[in-house]
Amino acid sequence: MSSNIDYTSSSTQFTFDVNDSTLFKRDDRNFINILGVEQLNTLENISLLDVFLSKNKVIEPHYHQNAAELVYCISGAAIVSIFNPFTKELQNYPIEPGQVANIPQGWWHYEIATENDTHLLAIFDAPTPEVILGSDILKFTPSNVMAHTYCLDENQWKKTIAPIVPSTYIGPPKDCNRVKSTSEKQKEQKDPHHKHKNKYRPSQFTNPYPPYQYPNMNPYMNPYGSNPYGSYY
């Protein structure tokens, strides 16, 4: 029992409806609900994200600087991809109902739904899951720094990242109009029905070389950290 919690207070909470706490909503089939200490003030070192995805939607690459994450599949299916910083390998774990994937604290990762109506529960060992998003890193790192560091053409880099919206959370964006690669164009020329086929295959998401102005984000989740106990204690 934590000494920080006053269990005699009339403001002490023991129940909460997570459906009333939306972190991000792309549409009615793709959204994330959140439960942390700001929603339920008797929580200690635990919080969760309730994630709903349709097929081929992606929880964008990111990492949690303050917590490990356990992803449990409730329905549908997904591939959880984790970059192992010790082996320098991208590890891909397909999960179906009843299966889990564990992501150590601070490890770069993302999730891709491979079926419609995918429902994932992400459980964290922290009172609030903090996050650094790939879209924010790409958008806010100065272009001249990226160009100088990686020997890039700065103008090309700016053009490449121009469509990226900070805090994408669930991609691709609804207004995505991606420029097709040469190989995709060649496939469509050879097979005119190509575009009507399933665009993505689960195996495609295991490729190790795999992104709305500020979303409808829950005001209690500061992506870059805050007082985990808020004003409750």
From TrEMBL:
Residues 175-191 have a biased composition (Basic and acidic residues). Residues 172-208 are annotated as: Disordered. Coiled coil: none annotated. It comes from the Bacteria. Residues 21-158 form the Cupin type-1 domain. SMART domains: Cupin_1 (SM00835). InterPro entries: Cupin_1, RmlC-like_jellyroll, RmlC_Cupin_sf. This is Cupin domain-containing protein. It comes from Lysinibacillus xylanilyticus.
